[in-house]
Write a structure and sequence with these properties.
This protein is of the alpha/beta class. The protein is built from six helices and seven strands. Strands 1-7-6-2-5-3-4 form a seven-stranded mixed sheet, with helices on both faces. α1 packs across α2.
């Protein structure tokens, strides 16, 4: 995600015309495509999907160690997901494709008002927003969390569902990690939903900083539990 948005400005206004928001039907199509590709090429083992609320706004917060993580979550989530995707991915034929399946383009360097408004609009509509809160692909351990996740959660009131994707990163130290072997097992573990705020309704910078710390602890704990549950402790 990008740096923390200004909570007092109009950037986070969620009252955007529904017709201008990312397509909900497109995200449903993207989910079907994801199911076909992810289950056709690998062997996802999905644990805890029942923890995702069946309706209403939800934020999926996933660890991010490989470019496959996003498509894997789209294909294994029981509900269609609108992911915040770096703008660099929207090039050539991928641009209309990603837009068509309801994904959101975001500038990770500058405060992106359009992405913020679209993301809040998705939540206001009762949809599922997907975020990699570390902001970019890394070790996938939630060690470096940005404040965008807390902002969206506090501003919208949507619960956060932590997700651990394990088995996509096969080799460490490479700029572009290789794809996991075809038909190999990839674990996707969904955790219990939780609220980012402290119940006070505060949206100040300090409140967001405190929420970010709380969120990081919950996500880190879920990742550790998921590694133990799947037998991947100490492995990607």
């Amino acid at each position: 995600m990008t740096r923390t948005p200004n909570t007092t400005g109009k950037a986070g206004k969620a009252g955007k015309d529904a017709a201008a928001l990312p397509s909900a039907s497109g995200a449903a199509v993207g989910r079907r495509i994801g199911i076909g590709l992810m289950y056709g090429l690998w062997k996802p083992r999905v644990l805890g999907a029942w923890r995702i609320p069946a309706g209403g706004p939800v934020i999926l917060a996933g660890n991010h160690s490989h470019n496959l993580d996003g498509p894997m979550l789209i294909g294994t989530s029981p509900r269609p997901v609108h992911f915040l995707v770096k703008k660099e991915a929207f090039v050539g034929p991928l641009d209309p494709f990603l837009r068509g399946i309801g994904q959101l383009k975001v500038d990770r360097v500058n405060a992106d008002r359009t992405a913020i408004t679209d993301a809040l609009g998705v939540l206001e509509r009762g949809g599922v927003l997907g975020i990699f809160p570390e902001g970019t692909r890394g070790d996938g351990d939630f060690a470096s969390l940005r404040a965008g996740l807390a902002y969206f959660a506090v501003r919208s009131g949507a619960p956060i569902v932590p997700v651990a994707v394990l088995g996509t990163a096969q080799r460490r130290g490479r700029v572009v990690p290789g794809l996991p072997p075809l038909r190999s097992r990839i674990d996707v573990v969904f955790g219990d939903p939780f609220e980012a705020g402290d119940g006070s309704g505060r949206r100040t910078r300090s409140a967001l900083d405190e929420a970010t710390v709380r969120v990081q602890k919950r996500l880190g704990a879920h990742l550790a539990d998921a590694r133990r549950l799947t037998g991947r402790a100490g492995h990607p």
